[in-house]
Amino acid sequence: MEFYKNIIRPLLFKLPAETAHTFATSAFRNASIWKLWNTINHVTDERLKLSIAGINLNNPIGLAAGFDKDCLFISGIRSLGFGYIVGGTVTLNPRPGNKHPRLFRNTKDKALVNALGFPNVGAKEVARNIQRNPSNPSIISISGLTVGEFVECAKLIDPLVEGLELNISSPNTAGLRIFHKIASFRDLIQNINQTRKKPLFIKLPPYYDSESQHLCFQIIKTSLEEGVDGFSVANTIPVKDTRLGVGSGGVSGKPLFETMVRMVQEIRREIGQKLVINGCGGIFTGDDAIKTFLAGADTVQLYTGLVYEGPSIPSKINQGLLDYLNEQGLEKISLIKE
Ligand SMILES: Cc1cc2nc3c(=O)[nH]c(=O)nc-3n(C[C@H](O)[C@H](O)[C@H](O)COP(=O)(O)O)c2cc1C
After folding, report:
1. For a tag on the chain, would you pick the N or C end, based on fewer CB atoms within 10 A?
2. What is the 8-class DSSP label of residue 3?
């Protein structure tokens, strides 16, 4: 929708990035407006439907974690045409997040740099928000600084949603790296597996050198040994940025795309076809999604693309996928990766 790029985006981009985000998300408060929008813009087709770990989706485009941290707008945002929403990241107790400023745009690169540090109202309040405003399928991202915090958070959220995504990979939360020690990560998964009834996805840290690659594959190996349903590939890439209140954060958007596709390919090779891969990082177009599926992903997730491309992004990507299915004579979306 050029209206977004020509009118709305320039106005939003005049505001500080976090203010613009708060302003933009409040537009989703009234879900009925977006349901109407959906009837006009939504691209639906049986061939886009798929199931991941038993969760039925109308299409393979997910909103990535972090956009709706308190799960206030899930229903409105889903009406943009997303197949699913990842709400959160939610922690057991409320958190104010890191020192401001903590979100910037790198407009030339079509990127964002954030160091939010999980600001959220805490699992009890989020559970109330989900009950007030249910919209399935939703997967909720949870985190914590101890195994106990993760488990208590999972107990509150798991009964209300269709899946859980464990966030052990945010570069912005001091203390989270404890779960990059494999013994702690194993302990975490074992405890979550005893608690949960819903499918479990692990949000992986990105790799960009041999050390980070080794860590990522150790997390994958441990996850396979303990039992998970899939991986979301991946979180933001850590960077130093003196504009941020805490001096460093994570980059998202276009600069991640090539790295993410390579990761999806290598992880698919490693894990075989059984588990789900959600490719996440720099998805802006139907072509980006197709490249990610060809690399082995089952679904894609996006955040930064929504900020730069606007509310029609899920419909445009879904239309791109349908055009591709027609061109290739494929009967369903899951056949792209085969
Ligand atoms: C402002 C912002 C906040 C984010 N918050 C979270 C979060 O709370 N939990 C999480 O797992 N990922 C979070 N992410 C990472 C995204 O879910 C995603 O992994 C990353 O941005 C790459 O996708 P993209 O290039 O489509 O944005 C955040 C990203 C941004 C830009």
Report:
1. C
2. H
Hey, where are the domains in the chain?
2-335
Contact (CB, 8 A) for 50 and 57: yes
* pLDDT of res. 90: 97
Whose alpha carbon is nearest atom 13 of ligand 1?
66
Residue 167: CB within 6 Å of ligand 1? yes
Q: Which two tokens stand for residue 295?
A: 């690399």
Contact 167, 115 (CB under 8 A): no
The CA distance from 239 to 59, in Å, is 33
pLDDT given for residue 32 in this prediction: 81
Q: How far apart are CA 20 and CA 17, in angstroms?
A: 5
pLDDT at 106 over 90: yes
For the question of whether the overall pTM of this predicted structure is more than 0.85, the answer is yes
Which burial class, exposed, middle or buried, applies to 8 when counting CB atoms under 10 A from its CB (0-12, 13-18, 19+)?
middle
The CATH class given to the 2-335 domain equals: alpha beta
Q: Which active-site residues does the annotation give? A: 170
